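Milestone M4 deliverable, item 7.
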Amino acid sequence: MTKTGIFRKRQRMQYDKPFFTRMRNDFKRNWGLYLLVLPVLAFYAIFSYGPMYGAVIAFQNFRPALGIAESDWVGLQHFRDFFNSVFFNRVLWNTVRISLLRLLFEFPAPIFLALLINEVRHKYFARTVQTITYMPFFISVIVVAGLIRAFVNVDGIITNFFVMFGMNNANMLNNVSYWLPIFITSDVWQSVGWGSIIFLAALQGIDQEQYEAAAIDGAGRLKQTLHVTLPGIIPTITILLILRMGTMLSVGAEKILLLDSPQVWSVSDVIGTFVFRRGILDMQFSFATAVGLFNSVVNIAFLLTANFIARKASSDGNSLF
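Output delivered:
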């Protein structure tokens, strides 16, 4: 019997054993790796899964003095109050609109940047461009919001530039026509460089012989990009798109809170900001938790739907699970 046959026979013998026996044997062989991953598991167990118990207050009239165990149960009352609220249509529509605009502009931007950097033959210039585009990601959201407010204020540099073309001299963030483009543009600027890292790594994994074969067949750089490069990174794009759909209604409430004002709530008020005002400022903890839980359930539905579509549409079943 060949070495390959012996290896496969040993694998079959391993899988014939009970699950807990296999786990015990694997732990004995790789106990060091299990110890390395233990802090990560502890982090998620303590800070992510543990607090999920608190979601039960969405079905209670929670009072901090009584605690979760003693607070009265109200069932789905808070969900009904949210669906019947005069703000429901506004916050849901604004959340969906901002999410779709981010998906339309922010998601493909790193792909285009990675393709452009990949075409640069001067490696030092490419690294310089990468470094410059990465830098905004490491700037604090508070600092970015402060810069934006300064640039689009009455005497800001961006405001003065547009005033030369006939725009009224006013704070652009207080104008509903300008707030959304400013928010989306700043999001793209801050995330495009960091997001391109994964796509650049995927581009490095494409077999170079495919480019040579395409060149022999007479394909230029554009056709090589369309028929070799893009198909080579489609699996990566699909996985990241599925993950993005799982956060469809999470639009960065922190940045919105730093940039919005009552004058533009008609376009800036989203589920996250609504939860902040009702839960933190108005101290309606149960109601805010119910709204947040609704947001999470919808995100999970988007994730499962996107994963199902990707698995069915892809010939090789490219999906998360």
